[in-house]
C-alpha cells in the first residue's frame, strides 16, 4: 500500500469516529412540553443539524450558521453560511438571528445547541462601542499572534454579546441542551466556538493579561471594552444557567484511537503521543522529526514499522505573506528535518477539511520532499520563513484536499516509519 493511501485511510477513520450521524443519536434530550428550538454554530454545525433532524422524534425548528461551502440539507432547520476564519456581515446577521430565535421562550421550551469549532469567527456580535470592522481586526490580530486557541477564545468571549454563555442566557427561562464537537486541546467545552452556550470562570482581567502577554495590537475600541465592567461574561453560577446541560459527542482522543486501530489492522503498530499538543507548528515538527529519526535509526522508544499519531492544535506566528496553514507549515518544517532519511513519511491535516484559508486540509511529506522541491526550483526554507507552505506542497502535488468533512476535532498528524 502506498503511504498516501495509508494516511488517507487513517484520516477517514478519524473523521468517521467524529461523524455526527453516528454520535448524536446517543446523546438526545427528552422531548419538552413546549417547542424544540435548534441553534448552532461551527464548521460542523450544518451536518450536526441534518443528523439531529433524522433522529429527533418530534417537531422542531431553528437556525444554525456554518462556513461558506459547509452546508448540509435540512428540512426544518435553516442553514446560514458565513465567513471563516475572518468574520463578515453574513455572520453578524446570523448572530442577530440566533439571538432573536431564542428570545421570548418559556420554561417548557427546549433549546438544542449544536456547537463545533469555527463558531468563534462565524458569530461576530460586537458589543456597544465596537463595530464589525473592529471585530474583524481583533480576529486578524489573534490569528497572526501564535496564541493558543484557548487564549484566543478567552479574548473573543469578552468582546461579544453572544459568546461566553450569552446565547444561552438569552434563551432563559428555556432549558438549553448543548451537543459539542470539540476542537480544543483538553476538550474544555467553554472554549469550543468561544462557548456561546457554556460559561466558565475566565474574566476580562484574564483577557487583558493575554493581550499583554502576546502583545496584541487590538483596536482601541476593543481595549476600552475589555477595561470596562461591560465586558464581564456570565458565570456558571448564574441562575439563568440552572438545569442546562452540555455533552461532548466527539473529540480528538476518540478519533486518534480510531486511526490507531485502523493502522493496526493494516499491520502497523500505532503510538499516540497526545491528543492535546499545542505550540508553534514548526517547533512541534522538530520534536516529531527527532522522535521519528530515533525510531528509524535505533528502534527507540519503539520498533518500526510504526506510525506516530498526535492531535491538538498548533499555532503559527505569521511573519510572511505566503499561503498556508498550521498543518502544512508543520509538514514543511518536518520535511526539512527528515530530508534524506529514507523510510519516513508524514501527513498532517485538519479534520474539518480546511487548513488555513485555502482549500486543502493539509499535505503529505517524506524524505524526498525537499529534493523534489529543489528540482522544481523551490527553496523549502524560504517558503517556511514566508509562511508559504501551501505553495511548496502545491508545486509537488502533495496537498491533501478531501473537502468539508462535516466534523471538526482538531488536527491529525501521522508519521510512518518503515
UniProtKB/TrEMBL annotation:
Q: What SUPFAM superfamilies does UniProt report for this protein, alphabetically?
A: GckA/TtuD-like
What would you give as a GO molecular function for this chain, any one?
glycerate kinase activity
Residue ranges of domain MOFRL-associated in the record: 8-226
Pinpoint the MOFRL domain residues. 307-411
Question: Which Pfam families does UniProt cross-reference here?
Answer: DUF4147, MOFRL
Superkingdom field: Bacteria
What name goes with this protein? Answer: Glycerate kinase
Which organism is this entry from? Phyllobacterium brassicacearum
- Lineage of origin: Bacteria, Pseudomonadati, Pseudomonadota, Alphaproteobacteria, Hyphomicrobiales
Amino acid at each position: 500500500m502506498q503511504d498516501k493511501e495509508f494516511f488517507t485511510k487513517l484520516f477517514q477513520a478519524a473523521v468517521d469516529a467524529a461523524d455526527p450521524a453516528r454520535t448524536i443519536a446517543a446523546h438526545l434530550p427528552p422531548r419538552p412540553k413546549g417547542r424544540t428550538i435548534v441553534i448552532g454554530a461551527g464548521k460542523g454545525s450544518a451536518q450536526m443539524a441534518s443528523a439531529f433532524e433524522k433522529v429527533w422524534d418530534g417537531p422542531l425548528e431553528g437556525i444554525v450558521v456554518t462556513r461558506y461551502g459547509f452546508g448540509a440539507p435540512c428540512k426544518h432547520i435553516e442553514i446560514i453560511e458565513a465567513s471563516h476564519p475572518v468574520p463578515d456581515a453574513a455572520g453578524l446577521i446570523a448572530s442577530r438571528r440566533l439571538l432573536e430565535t431564542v428570545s421570548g421562550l418559556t420554561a417548557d421550551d427546549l433549546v438544542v445547541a449544536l456547537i463545533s469549532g469555527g463558531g468563534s469567527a462565524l458569530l461576530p456580535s460586537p458589543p456597544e462601542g465596537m463595530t464589525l470592522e473592529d471585530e474583524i481586526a481583533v480576529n486578524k490580530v489573534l490569528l497572526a499572534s501564535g496564541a493558543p486557541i484557548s487564549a484566543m477564545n478567552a479574548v473573543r468571549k469578552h468582546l461579544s454579546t453572544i459568546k461566553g454563555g450569552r446565547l444561552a442566557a438569552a434563551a432563559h427561562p428555556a432549558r438549553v441542551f448543548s451537543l459539542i464537537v470539540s476542537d480544543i486541546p483538553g476538550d474544555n467545552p467553554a472554549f469550543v466556538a468561544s462557548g456561546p452556550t457554556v460559561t466558565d470562570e475566565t474574566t476580562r482581567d484574564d483577557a487583558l493579561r493575554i493581550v499583554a502577554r502576546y502583545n496584541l495590537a487590538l483596536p482601541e475600541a476593543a481595549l476600552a471594552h475589555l477595561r470596562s465592567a461591560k465586558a464581564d461574561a456570565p458565570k456558571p453560577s448564574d441562575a439563568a444557567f440552572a438545569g442546562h446541560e452540555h455533552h461532548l459527542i466527539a473529540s480528538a482522543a476518540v478519533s486518534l484511537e480510531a486511526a490507531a486501530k485502523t493502522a493496526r489492522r493494516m499491520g502497523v503498530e500505532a503510538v499516540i503521543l497526545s491528543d492535546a499538543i499545542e505550540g508553534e507548528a514548526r517547533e512541534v515538527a522538530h520534536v516529531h522529526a527527532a522522535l521519528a529519526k530515533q525510531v528509524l535509526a535505533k528502534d527507540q522508544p519503539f520498533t518500526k514499522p510504526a506510525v506516530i499519531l498526535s492531535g491538538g492544535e498548533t499555532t503559527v506566528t505569521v511573519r510572511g505573506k505566503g499561503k498556508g496553514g498550521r498543518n502544512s507549515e508543520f509538514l514543511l518544517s518536518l520535511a526539512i528535518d527528515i530530508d534524506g532519511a529514507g523510510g519516513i513519511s508524514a501527513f498532517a491535516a485538519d479534520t474539518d477539511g480546511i487548513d488555513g484559508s485555502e482549500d486543502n486540509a493539509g499535505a503529505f511529506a517524506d524524505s524526498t520532499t525537499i529534493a523534489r522541491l529543489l528540482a522544481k526550483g523551490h527553496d523549502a526554507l524560504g517558503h517556511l520563513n514566508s509562511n508559504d507552505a501551501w505553495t511548496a506542497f502545491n508545486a509537488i502535488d502533495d496537498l491533501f484536499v478531501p473537502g468539508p468533512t462535516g466534523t471538526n476535532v482538531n488536527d491529525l498528524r501521522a508519521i510512518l516509519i518503515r
